[in-house]
Amino acid sequence: NFPNCTTVIPLIFQTNVLTELRKWKLSLIEHHKLQMRQEKEKHTAHVRQLSNEMENLKELLHAYEISIGRKDEVVITNLTQALERQKEKLELMRKFTLWRIQHVKAKQEEYANRMADRQFQTALMKKVWAAWRSLSEEKWKDKVAKACRLRAEDVCVQLTNDYEAKIAELTSTLEQTKAEILRLRSEREEYEDTMKKAFMRGVCALNLEAMSVFQSK
């Protein structure tokens, strides 16, 4: 028995259609694989390019870090040297002030010793005059005593005036020295404040420079 023609022809047509569909499907799959391969190659090349750019940026960043570090070292070195010089200057001023104070004290002690010697001489003179009065005649006793008393009073008044004047002079010198110490302390505080502000300005300037560099990149 032979198959019917009306049945065989649709089967052949269906087989051909399925074969074409399978070929078309395989072609689409191959085309899709080719596109995926091309996209993967493009992605790999783009990633490689980005990696190269990242390495270049890392090298540039390292160079900027080295440059900024060198600038920081220079600024810190300059500030340290300036602070050391100011410290030496303040130390010299302190030593000079202490020397002046000791000198004034030595002058005061010397003057006090000299005044004590004068007082001792005056007392000794009074004793001598008293002894001489006791040995003198009665008629000269009152006259000599009065003269000695007047002379002693004059000497005491003169010594007292000299002593008060010298004390006033030394007191004025001491006040001037104290004022000079206060001025030196004020100058030192102002200088330290200026140095701190200069250091902060330098640090801020470096930070702004670094920020501008990063922002521009």
From TrEMBL:
Alphabetical GO biological process terms: eye photoreceptor cell development
Record keywords:
Cell cycle, Coiled coil, Cytoplasm, Cytoskeleton, Repeat
Coiled-coil annotation: which residues? 33-67, 160-201
Look up the domain of life of the source.
Eukaryota
Where's it found, cell-wise? Cytoplasm, Cytoskeleton, Microtubule organizing center, Centrosome, Centriole
GO CC entries: centriole; photoreceptor connecting cilium
Task: Please state the protein's primary subcellular location.
Answer: cytoplasm
Purpose of the protein: Essential for the assembly of the distal half of centrioles, required for centriole elongation. Acts as a negative regulator of centriole elongation.
PANTHER family xref list:
CENTROSOMAL PROTEIN POC5
- Which family, according to the similarity comment? Belongs to the POC5 family.
Protein name, UniProt field: Centrosomal protein POC5
Where is the organism placed in the taxonomic lineage, from the top? Eukaryota, Metazoa, Chordata, Craniata, Vertebrata
